[in-house]
Design brief:
The complex is a heterodimer of chains A (about 350) and B (about 350). Chain A is an all-alpha fold. Chain A is built from 14 helices and two strands. In chain A, α3 packs across α13, α5 packs antiparallel against α11 and α12 packs across α13. In chain B, strands 1-12-13-14-6-5-4-2-3 form a nine-stranded mixed sheet, sandwiched between helices. In chain B, α2 packs across α10 and α5 packs across α6.
């Protein structure tokens, strides 16, 4: 029995992704002077903390054959609403504030879920509409004011950069550690808990899921509500990290989160994928973006195009690698059976 | 009789005195015209301040018409601006006051509006090729912004060091013009010879993008001394990034910023100097200009001088930065440092 045959396809996928990540790091290390050091880890980890949460929520929705384009607006609104509450009530308990962010996000997500699951409007239409709606709520709610760092309590703005522990020059900061914990919790739920498995069932075959007695509508509603919850938590992190919140906060996060999920091997047609994959996908996208800024060969105007091409390349490499690994495994197990 | 004669003489003297000032046009209040104030997008403090200024002028000129403050949502800025411009023409609005975020793409819509009788006055950010625009109300001379930024860089770097620019979007015409003018200023005077401009990057006027770009700049150029950000979002995000990573001793931040947002960074030395002008005044002056054009009291010709209420007299002149275009120059702007920023932040 080789190691390969003992690994599940999902685990192979993760291995392939890690290989792609390593290739990207090695490539840029050869191109950019002083690239490979603890600082790179600190940059990527602090920056990915927010996207990791959003991509996790997005994954839950994509698993059910849907998509959530309103995540960016939800992050922006939550960040602003949370900032506005703490500005007016600086003595507020941190946990209550976090709860508030979570509730605001969940409320928005629930609206999405109700419209998709019970009003039967396709999710791409619903969330395209709510993306604009929630953003407009933010414009209206903000009254053209912005939240500024000065008006936030120190515990909040210090939180994301507080080192929890470090390995050499690599710091695990509180923001990154917190989202890593959330991702792991969601991953454990998805793989271990029966109710969470229904997400996969509904996504891979809604009719079969229905016949198995699964209430698909409730599952879809739950997925959107959870995506809202994740966006709410991300909004909290966004506020803590950037301090200044204007109406453009979180703009474009929807596409980045879909990209992270897909790069991370989440099937866009639902039914398969993992949040660990999406997490690695978010890291890969962030790594590419950060490295391209530092890579002198690519000019500002071409960066987006190169980023798009590299994402495609990463997805292709990852798909081919994991297919190869699966084939190899099948061959090995056949040989073993002989 | 003597008194009358004296009075007449005095009146004549007054009128000749007026004549000497190439007859300043005093706008007659109370004429009705509907106008639209169109910012780059809604929800940004400086645009709201411009609206306050415009509303003040609207009351002062007792225009019985409507002043509408409307703009696109942030994710839809370019298309939204074009749409609002097109609608304004068909609604026969008197004037549209535009802070252009659509580059030259707005030209067809602006020309159509002009053809329908709607005046197009730009402020804050002009139409780059000047087509479809009656006049541009320039906050400050775009050339002098370059010099001011070069001087701030000189001061902060102590005359020698590496500087990088963190701008808004790659197609923001005002920021691009300022960066160009700074490059020219740096090249023109040998006293700036020690300052090296190493890179220009764009943070899209989003806090998170700007924050990450600022850190990437520091990683890319280990001996960087200054990040110059000619946008209120970028300067703030850069200062926060430098502070969060404990880099303020090495890398300073400067550019154009709002005192209320920059206060703590100026006091703790992350951003020792920055500059800005008054957006309320800009809105106020823009309204006077648009009102004059829409009511036919101003023709929008070079050399015309008019009185803009509390701000004094302004003259329409050729725009030195854009061939064939006209501008009204507001100016000046304030450089903030730890001595005056606290008072301005209130």
């Amino acid at each position: 029995m080789s190691l390969l045959s003992r690994l599940s396809p999902a685990a192979l996928r993760i291995l392939a992704l890690l290989a792609v990540l390593a290739i990207v790091v090695i490539f840029f290390a050869s191109q950019i002077e002083g690239y490979l050091n603890g600082r790179l880890f600190n940059r990527i980890s602090s920056s990915v903390a927010i996207m990791a949460l959003i991509a996790t929520g997005q994954t839950l929705v994509i698993l059910t054959r849907n998509i959530d384009l309103s995540v960016g607006s939800m992050v922006g609104f939550t960040a602003f609403a949370t900032g506005s509450i703490i500005t007016n009530h600086p003595e507020l308990n941190p946990l209550l504030l976090l709860l508030y962010s979570a509730l605001v996000g969940t409320a928005f997500g629930t609206v999405n879920g109700l419209l998709v699951a019970y009003a039967r409007v396709p999710s791409i239409i619903v969330t395209l509409a709510t993306m604009a709606l929630y953003r407009s709520f933010l414009v209206e709610y903000s009254d053209a004011k912005s939240i500024t760092t000065n008006s936030l309590p120190a515990w909040l703005t210090d939180f994301p950069n507080m080192p929890v522990f470090s390995i050499g020059a690599m710091e695990f900061r509180a923001g990154f550690t917190a989202s890593l914990v959330v991702v792991i919790i969601v991953h454990l739920c998805l793989t271990q808990l029966r109710p969470a498995r229904t997400l996969f069932a509904v996504g891979s075959n809604p009719e079969a899921a229905d016949m198995a007695g699964i209430d698909a509508k409730r599952v879809v509603l739950a997925a959107f509500a959870l995506s809202g919850l994740m966006a709410g938590l991300a909004g909290f992190m966004f506020l803590a990290r950037f301090g200044t919140i204007t109406v453009v906060a979180g703009l474009g996060f929807e596409l980045k989160s879909v990209a992270s999920a897909v790069v991370g091997g989440v099937n866009i047609f639902g039914g398969s994928g993992s949040v660990i994959g999406a997490f690695l996908g978010a890291i890969l996208v962030d790594l590419l973006e950060t490295s391209l800024v530092r890579w002198a060969v690519v000019s500002e105007f071409w960066r987006e195009a190169v980023l798009g091409a590299l994402i495609l390349l990463a997805v292709a490499t990852d798909t081919i690698l994991s297919r190869r690994l699966t084939k190899l495994r099948a061959k090995k197990s056949k040989e073993a059976a002989k | 009789m003597k008194h009358v004669l004296l009075g007449a003489a005095a009146a004549m003297m007054l009128s000749t005195a007026n004549f000497a000032y190439a007859d300043t046009i005093k706008l007659e209040p109370g004429k009705e015209t509907n106008m639209v104030l169109l910012p780059k997008f809604l929800g940004i403090l400086v645009f709201d301040q411009a609206n306050e200024g415009a509303q003040e002028a609207h009351k002062e000129l007792a225009n019985p018409g409507k002043l509408e403050f409307t703009g696109p949502t942030p994710e839809n800025s370019t298309a939204g601006q074009i749409e609002i411009m097109t609608t304004a023409g068909t609604q026969k609005q008197g004037a549209v006051m535009l802070s252009n975020n659509a580059g030259d793409q707005i030209v067809p819509a602006a020309e159509a509006a002009q053809a329908a009788g709607t005046k197009v006055v730009t402020w804050d950010s002009p139409i780059p090729n000047g087509k479809g625009e009656s006049v541009f109300v320039a906050q400050v001379d775009f050339g002098s912004i370059g010099t001011v930024m070069a001087d701030m860089a000189m001061d902060i770097l102590g005359g020698k060091g590496k500087m990088a620019v963190l701008s808004a979007t790659p197609d923001a015409s005002n920021q691009n013009a300022w960066i160009d003018s700074m490059k020219k200023a740096l090249a023109a005077d040998p006293k700036y010879a020690g300052i090296e401009l190493v890179d220009v990057v764009y943070g899209d006027d989003q806090a998170e993008v700007s924050y990450n770009r600022a850190l990437a700049l520091v990683d890319k150029y280990p001996d960087l001394g200054l990040i110059m950000s000619p946008t209120t979002v970028g300067i703030q995000a850069s200062a926060k990034a430098m502070q969060d990573e404990g880099l303020c001793d090495k890398v300073k931040v400067s550019g154009l910023g709002l005192p209320s947002e920059m206060l703590s960074y100026t006091m703790n030395g992350c951003a020792p100097q920055f500059a800005l002008w008054d957006f309320r005044d800009l809105g106020y002056l823009t309204y006077f200009t648009a009102y004059g054009l829409a009511t036919g009291q101003l023709k929008g010709e070079i050399g015309e001088t008019f009185a803009a209420g509390r701000m004094g007299d302004f003259t329409i002149e050729a725009d030195p930065g854009r061939e064939g275009a006209k501008r009204i120059l507001m100016g000046p702007f304030t450089v903030y440092n730890k001595d005056n920023v606290e008072a301005a932040a209130k």
